[in-house]
């Protein structure tokens, strides 16, 4: 696995861990601190979206320009190598899509939590008056 795919795999694993951490039930004070910390991290970690998009374009380009190995002219080893490259490309595409989807999920969870906090503050102000 090349370096960029290892990095993307670790980013996806970290995003999955953060998404689980955000969705676990926890006390309100702890949850708001966790969400504020994750919100601060979200902006710099936006790099994952264009990075994944670039990797998807690379997968597409390689797929379009890959030598086809079908028929009687290919040996068994060539056919195995071709199938292995197809499986790797599919795995890498799933990794790219997962990275973008998890980033979006984390962003939306943080946004919903901030919206809920602001609505609770408005409700508290209405109750005080």
TrEMBL record:
Annotated membrane-spanning segments are 6-25, 37-57
| Record-linked PROSITE patterns | ALDEHYDE_DEHYDR_CYS (PS00070)
Domain (BAP29/BAP31 transmembrane) spans 1-120
Q: Name one GO cellular component term.
A: endoplasmic reticulum membrane
Q: What membrane topology does this protein have?
A: Multi-pass membrane protein
Matching Pfam families, A to Z?
Bap31
The keyword Signal appears for this protein: no
- UniProt KW Transmembrane keyword: yes
Its BP terms in the Gene Ontology are:
endoplasmic reticulum to Golgi vesicle-mediated transport; intracellular protein transport; protein localization to endoplasmic reticulum exit site
User: What's in the keyword line of the UniProt record?
Assistant: Endoplasmic reticulum, ER-Golgi transport, Membrane, Oxidoreductase, Protein transport, Transmembrane, Transmembrane helix, Transport
Q: Please state where this protein is localized.
A: Endoplasmic reticulum membrane; Membrane
GO MF term (any one): oxidoreductase activity
Principal place where this protein is found? endoplasmic reticulum
Show the PANTHER family listed in the entry: BCR-ASSOCIATED PROTEIN, BAP, ENDOPLASMIC RETICULUM TRANSMEMBRANE PROTEIN
Q: Relate the protein's function as given in its record.
A: May play a role in anterograde transport of membrane proteins from the endoplasmic reticulum to the Golgi.
**What family classification does the UniProt entry report for this protein?**
Belongs to the BCAP29/BCAP31 family.
What is this protein called in UniProt? Endoplasmic reticulum transmembrane protein
């Amino acid at each position: 696995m090349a370096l960029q795919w290892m990095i993307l795999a670790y980013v996806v694993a970290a995003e999955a861990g953060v998404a689980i951490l955000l969705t676990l039930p926890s006390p309100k004070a702890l949850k708001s601190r966790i969400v504020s910390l994750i919100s601060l991290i979200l902006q710099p970690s936006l790099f994952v979206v264009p990075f994944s998009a670039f990797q998807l374009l690379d997968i597409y380009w390689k797929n379009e320009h890959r030598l086809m190995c079908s028929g009687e002219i290919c040996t068994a080893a060539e056919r195995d190598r071709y199938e292995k490259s197809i499986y790797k490309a599919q795995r890498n595409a799933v990794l790219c899509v997962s990275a973008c989807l998890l980033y979006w999920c984390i962003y939306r969870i943080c946004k919903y939590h901030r919206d809920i906090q602001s609505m609770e503050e408005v409700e508290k102000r209405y109750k005080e008056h």
